[in-house]
Structures are given as C-alpha cells and as structure tokens.
C-alpha cells in the first residue's frame, strides 16, 4: 500500500486538468519583487497586460451565467412567539403584528412570512368536536386493529377524495386540496388535549392571500405568505415541513436553460423554494416552542403571482400512483 501518497492521475485526467490549471493560474502569480512600481512601469509589464486581458475575458461572461455562480445570500429566520391561544374569528394579522412589536421587531420590505397552518385553521374555525363523529363499521374495525381513534379515522376519510395506502395502522390519503398525507391532515395535537380535531384550511392559498392583504392594510408592505404543515415522506423516516398555501411569490424557481459555473446548460433544475423555506422556518418554530410563525429575511424571491398548486405533481406524470 502507498500510504501517505496522493493517488496518481491517469494520463487522460491529467490531459483534461492541465488546461484548467493553466487558465486558473494564468496571470495570477505574485511578482518576485515586492517594492512599489509606478503606474507607467506596471503598464509596460507583460504580466500586468496579461492580467488585464484575463479580467476583460471574465467581464464578457454572459450575465445569465454570472448570476448562477453569484455569492449565496445570507438568510435570517426569526421566530414569532404568540402568547395566547388563537380562537375562531381572531385576526391572524393582528396577533402576529402584536407579537412582532412585542419582540421589538418590524416587518421590512423583502421579508417573507411563514405561518403554521394550525393558527390559520383555528382562526377559520376548522375545529371538529370528536364527540359528534359517528364512525362507520369500517373505521371502527381498522381503528381497533391498531389501537387508533375511530373518530379520527372517520374524519380523515371524510376529508379525503381518495385513499392511497392503508397498511400497518397508517392511512395515507389524497385530500380535497390534492395533498398526499397521513389522515388527510386531521390533527389532534396542540389543539385542546384530544377532544377536538383540527382540519386543514379549506383553501390554504386563499388563506395565505387574505393574510397577505391584511398585513398590507396594516403595514403598507406586500409581504409574501407561506402556510405550512408537517408531512411524512415515502422512503424516508421523520416529518418535515411542506408549503400548503402560498401568496405573493412563486412557489417554484425554474433554472432550466441557465448555465452552471462550468457552462453546462441545466435540464431539470426546478427548485421547490416554498417547501425549502417552510423547512427552514420549521427548524426555528419547532413543535413545542409556541412560535407558530417566522420571518424569513434575506431571501431573493420572484414576486409574481404564485400558488401551491404548482407544487402538486399531476397524476399523469406521477410514477407511483
């Protein structure tokens, strides 16, 4: 074994890498003499001219290509704790602005507001008393088999338009919105201890648009809003945040046709930025922190009209249904 030795490059690899090394080092070697020279003598120096030529060649790189290798933005994700429980009829905009001012913060132009769906659903009265639900025989049998609440199973079936999988005590449905998730998003955690169940907003895009309008009336700022929920994923353990409602920005960023730093034209790079921002906010908001919203600051977004529907894959292109 050749311990401590760098692996030898093949002749083909060396032939490919040599021009790249030459271009990298071209005109950037330090002069041997460190004393100061006049501007006139520097202009006569061939190395100086060569460096100027290199800079000129760099300036001719198409703007489209330079943008994709730009320095990444620095993001801040600021939690917004809300002290009191949200009740049906409460104004989410007022509650969040009160909490923002209490933290001595302000919304600024360019901010994005990410909000957990539970406070939205609560304010919209999407609460169901489980005592009023009469489960079917099918729901009772399924629930008894896996020690589940038959009323929650019944409610999940009512909130679905299709059952995707039902196995090992897990019920995966397609909601009326088109989301694929467990139990149609019906939730009993962080509600009232188990007597009430919380449904997803009836139209999360509409809810996001209303919150954005309400914030604009109160602040004069057009702040994009993302509403989120926690979903599981096929082939991966654990929950993560997903965008279920979007207003004021594009949910996807399409980089197809742009060139990477090596000049390769991207073919399939469509980035789900609304989901990525939802996940970033989820790290800060958490499940037990009583921070149902976050301000994302520093992210450059496309302010064109957008909805969450762009994130939902059509059935005809879905390989797994």
Can you walk through the features of this model?
This protein is of the alpha+beta class. The chain folds into two domains: 75-125 and 200-308, 60s Ribosomal Protein L30, Chain: A, CATH 3.30.1330.100; 127-198, Alpha-Beta Complex (CofE-like fold). 33% of the residues lie in helices and 20% in strands. The longest helix has 16 residues, at 204-219. The chain starts with 10 loop residues before the first helix and ends in a 24-residue tail after the last strand.
Search tags:
10 helices; CofE-like fold; single chain; 2 domains; 3-stranded antiparallel β-sheet; disordered N terminus; 12 strands; alpha+beta; 60s Ribosomal Protein L30, Chain: A; 321 residues
CATH class of the largest domain: Alpha Beta
Poorly predicted ranges: 1-6, 24-34, 53-70
Strand order of the largest sheet: 1-12-2-8-9
Order of helices and strands: HHHHEHEHEHHEEEEHEEEEHE
- The CATH homologous superfamily of the largest domain is called CofE-like
Radius of gyration: 27 Å
The N- to C-terminal Cα distance equals 51 Å
Structural class: alpha+beta
Mean pLDDT: 83
Summarize the structure.
The chain has 321 residues and is α+β, with helices and mostly antiparallel strands. It is 33% helix and 20% strand. The chain has 10 helices and 12 strands.
Give a topology summary.
Elements: H1 11-25, H2 39-44, H3 46-59, H4 63-68, E1 76-80, H5 92-102, E2 112-116, H6 117-123, E3 127-129, H7 137-146, H8 150-158, E4 160-167, E5 170-175, E6 180-182, E7 196-198, H9 204-219, E8 225-233, E9 236-247, E10 253-254, E11 270-271, H10 273-285, E12 293-297
Parallel strand pairs: 2-8
Antiparallel strand pairs: 1-12, 2-12, 3-7, 4-5, 5-6, 8-9, 10-11
Helix pairs in contact: 5-9, 7-8
